[in-house]
From TrEMBL:
Mg(2+) 5 binds at residue 213. This is Thiamine-monophosphate kinase. GO terms for biological process: thiamine biosynthetic process; thiamine diphosphate biosynthetic process. GO terms for molecular function: ATP binding; magnesium ion binding; thiamine-phosphate kinase activity. It comes from Tepidimonas ignava.
Amino acid sequence: MSEFDLIARHFWRPTQGQSGVLLGNGDDCALLAPAPGMALAVSCDMLVAGRHFLPDVDPQALGHKALAVNLSDLAAMGARPLACTLALALPSVPDEAWLAGLARGLLALADAHGCALVGGDTTAGPLNLCLTVLGEVPPAHASRRSAAQPGDDVWVSGALGEARLGLALLRGELDLQGPGTEAAREHLLRPQPRVALGLALRGLVHAAVDVSDGLLADLGHILAAAGVAAQVDVDALLTHAVPPAVRALPPATALTYALAGGDDYELVFTADPAQREAVLAAARRAGTPVARIGRIVPGAPAAHPLADGAGRVQLVDGGGAPYTLPAGVRLAGFDHFATIEP
């Protein structure tokens, strides 16, 4: 099967009539037209076999996740998806059934979010998926990381630590059964990008980022970019933003998963306290739970906006006193260049 046969069989589809797409697959470039007054939001993520997913992963789940992690970036910016491209490296003899499953998972999520697949590339090589997503957002409502302000509330969406629990179950690190374990596996394999929430929060949020590498690491990106610090109420986090299956784990494990587990693809964002009711109303419209877990406080400017800002987070209890972590908590977020744990 040639490169072009592969594309035609699994990934080509007509894009006529899709919002913002003038020309899709089949030419040297796609042509997109954001709505008047909109800025183009662009993000790119790569998933590498052995680094980001296990070799025996269900291909339909992998196709879903490959696009979901990119749509999550658009959600953090408050952008509506327009289109995506896929660069795919495959073993020299592609597995037809595996490819069909990958395409089904990716295209089903693309259809759900009105995100047209408008091009890409394929080649032989170690298994690797690299997607670029494009969306549109009013420039004044784009939730930049650098816009966090002292006094802001810190919010998170959904359930933190659930994907890390799912990974532990798949790896055999934990032998658990019962409520919450299947949801944890599903959260890991098929994360749901919070696009609807990102759109509902337009104009309410100062700064936002998606939780891909762990809460502390990703909130730290906001803090470094804005030159501020944060206090995170661990009691509120555990009560309102961590699922029961994670809370039931030994305390050190539960806190490791909640604070540094990664792969949840929830949103952490900041907003003026005057917007609390509006934030909750937006979350209800989006059908996504949110929890207020802390506040932004003054901090020294960072040496660089991309510096590691996790150290700018102070963990406190419900009364505002420093929170004492139990022995064994590991707070390092995911590092793409670190040695993979067995």
